[in-house]
């Protein structure tokens, strides 16, 4: 079909020079695909290089400590990806002798590997005829063919998967998958695409019908929850502080943080002082409390907006098993806390 010929020709002339496109090694392709979930290429690239340097094989990743993996992942977000990455590496290394499953169907059985990631690995590593369908593919196909189906629906994903399968050249599915994703990332972008220079100017239905800005259709809205975090930074006379690991399921699982006071709204000095003395640190003698910043930090996650305040609490007592301030950076923290540690050297000397 002329569509795939034009698309692939565009790709060969415009594709970015990305390291995971220079290999068919399923370990490296899997690593890149997991990292690029919900992440821009520019942000993910340094992490890919760091991981491949530290863990050149799946056995190296499997033998690492989880904290080491989380620390290297720090700042990339969606930390369940890192935990699943580590568990899957252990499974592949220990149960499959380091060999990744060679088919889409079997790749789906790996923890953290969904339909898109399995299709990418299967086509890029094994040239299996299976289409990838992500946001880029939805956008390109919905605009080109004027498809108004709601992409939030499971039935629509099946519709687009069937359409992509029909369009894909069966002798080289990998390059088609790479091409359509790249086209969506560079040319057929979500907002204000440069349609006059597009190779599909004469055949794109959305352009002809002036519907580029309304496609693809997505009706489902993400409900955002606001949460209010007050981090309490203890400091004893030695300058040591206290941190804890988030062991409950949810955001930042198994990352470290300062003792947390979560509230229903932004609170002030009086509320924090009372809660710290009576409920959170009753065993310590508090001799001073102050807020560490003038403004609340707002950290936006996909479904949650975290309103974060930091409070410095000086105590008279010694902290048992306290952490020296200059050792804080060795622990995996959520990036909002890590950035605070780096910037507030007037509060915590690094």
UniProtKB/TrEMBL annotation:
- Return the EC number: 3.2.2.31
The record's section on SUPFAM superfamilies has: DNA-glycosylase, Nudix
Q: Which residues cross the membrane?
A: none
Q: Which catalysed reactions does the entry list for this protein?
A: Hydrolyzes free adenine bases from 7,8-dihydro-8-oxoguanine:adenine mismatched double-stranded DNA, leaving an apurinic site
Q: Which UniProt keywords apply?
A: 4Fe-4S, DNA damage, DNA repair, Glycosidase, Hydrolase, Iron, Iron-sulfur, Metal-binding
Q: Which Pfam families match?
A: HHH, HhH-GPD, NUDIX_4
Is 4Fe-4S among this UniProt entry's keywords?
Answer: yes
> Which cofactors?
[4Fe-4S] cluster
Occurrences of domain HhH-GPD (ranges) = 35-186
| Enzyme superclass (EC) | hydrolase
The record's annotation in SMART domains points to: ENDO3c
Give the note describing cofactor binding and stoichiometry: Binds 1 [4Fe-4S] cluster.
This protein's record includes keyword Iron-sulfur: yes
Please name the NCBIfam families in this protein's record: mutY
Q: Which family does it belong to?
A: Belongs to the Nth/MutY family.
Q: What does this protein do?
A: Adenine glycosylase active on G-A mispairs. MutY also corrects error-prone DNA synthesis past GO lesions which are due to the oxidatively damaged form of guanine: 7,8-dihydro-8-oxoguanine (8-oxo-dGTP).
Q: What is this protein called?
A: Adenine DNA glycosylase
Report the source organism: Flavobacterium cupriresistens
């Amino acid at each position: 079909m002329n569509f795939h010929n034009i698309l692939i020709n565009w790709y060969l002339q415009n594709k970015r020079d990305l390291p995971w496109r220079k290999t068919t090694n399923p370990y490296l392709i899997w690593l890149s695909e997991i990292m690029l979930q919900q992440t821009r290429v520019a942000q993910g690239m340094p992490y890919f290089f760091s991981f491949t340097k530290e863990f050149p094989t799946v056995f190296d990743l499997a033998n690492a400590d989880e904290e080491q993996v989380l620390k290297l992942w720090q700042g990339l977000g969606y930390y369940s990806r890192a935990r699943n990455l580590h568990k899957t590496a252990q499974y592949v290394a220990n149960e499959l002798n380091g060999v990744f499953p060679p088919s889409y169907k079997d790749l789906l059985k790996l923890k953290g590997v969904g339909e898109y990631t399995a299709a990418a690995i299967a086509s890029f590593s094994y040239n299996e005829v299976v289409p990838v369908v992500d946001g880029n593919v939805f956008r390109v196909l919905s605009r080109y063919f004027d498809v108004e189906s709601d992409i939030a629906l499971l039935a629509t994903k099946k519709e687009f998967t069937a359409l992509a399968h029909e369009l894909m050249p069966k002798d080289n599915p990998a390059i088609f998958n790479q091409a359509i994703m790249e086209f969506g990332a560079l040319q057929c972008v979500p907002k204000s695409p440069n349609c006059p220079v597009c190779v599909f100017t004469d055949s794109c239905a959305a352009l002809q019908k002036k519907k580029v800005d309304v496609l693809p259709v997505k009706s489902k809205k993400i409900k955002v929850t606001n949460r209010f975090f007050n981090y309490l930074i203890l400091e004893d006379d030695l300058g040591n502080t206290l941190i804890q690991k988030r062991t409950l399921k949810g955001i930042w699982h198994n990352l470290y943080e300062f003792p947390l006071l979560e509230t229903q709204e932004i609170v002030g000095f009086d509320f924090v002082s009372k809660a710290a003395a009576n409920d959170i640190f009753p065993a310590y003698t508090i001799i001073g409390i102050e807020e560490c910043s003038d403004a609340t930090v707002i950290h936006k996650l996909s479904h949650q907006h975290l309103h974060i305040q930091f409070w410095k609490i000086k105590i008279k007592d010694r902290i048992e098993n306290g952490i020296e301030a200059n050792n804080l950076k060795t622990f995996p923290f959520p990036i909002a806390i890590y950035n605070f540690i780096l910037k507030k050297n007037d509060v915590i000397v690094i």
